[in-house]
Write a structure and sequence with these properties.
mainly alpha; Four Helix Bundle (Hemerythrin (Met), subunit A); 61% helix
């Protein structure tokens, strides 16, 4: 999936990816929402928890830098080679929440991403070296793409496959 080249294209891609993924959960009932039968042995609730977790990390990195702090990346207590453990921490944290509760958090995190993106200039979004937390190679747009838009599409594919295989 190519990177968007304008803020409006980024916002539209994020909106479309969010709507497509979120709508996959419209007809999921409570008996199916925690079935860990989706590729990777995850449930619908886990899928949403993961999306919410990464959105919060993205926004958190930005907030920490704006406060003059150095963000702990990817998250406090985790290294980049522990992303599976980080994902599990998202699932564990949200293990008592229903899919409907998690979808509200997903909508809220999506809205926070939109608000954040809208607050950024084209330069901040598309040129490297605009933030310390982005490193030397990637612009903010790349971080947004790989931590929201791309995973939304990937998750949607997995959920659709699971629904089809289980006639849901």
């Amino acid at each position: 999936m190519p990177l968007p080249s304008t803020k409006s294209e980024l916002l539209e891609n994020l909106k479309l990816a969010y709507i497509k993924l979120d709508s996959e959960f419209d007809l999921i009932n409570s008996e199916n929402e925690r079935q860990q039968r989706i590729e990777g042995n995850v449930s619908c609730c886990d899928i949403v928890s993961y999306q919410v977790g990464w959105a919060k990390l993205l926004i958190g990195w930005e907030l920490q830098e704006s406060e003059g702090k150095t963000p702990e990346m990817p998250a406090k207590g985790f290294k980049w080679n522990q992303l599976g453990d980080l994902a599990q921490s998202f699932y564990d944290k949200n293990s008592k929440k229903s899919l409907s509760q998690l979808r509200v958090e997903f909508r809220d995190s999506y809205q926070q991403l939109i608000t954040w993106i809208e607050s950024l200039t084209e330069q901040e979004l598309f040129e490297p070296h605009q933030r310390k937390w982005t490193g030397d190679k990637w612009a903010i747009v790349k971080w947004i793409q790989i931590n929201s838009i791309a995973p939304y599409y990937s998750a949607r594919t997995k959920v659709r496959r699971w629904k089809k295989e289980n006639e849901i």
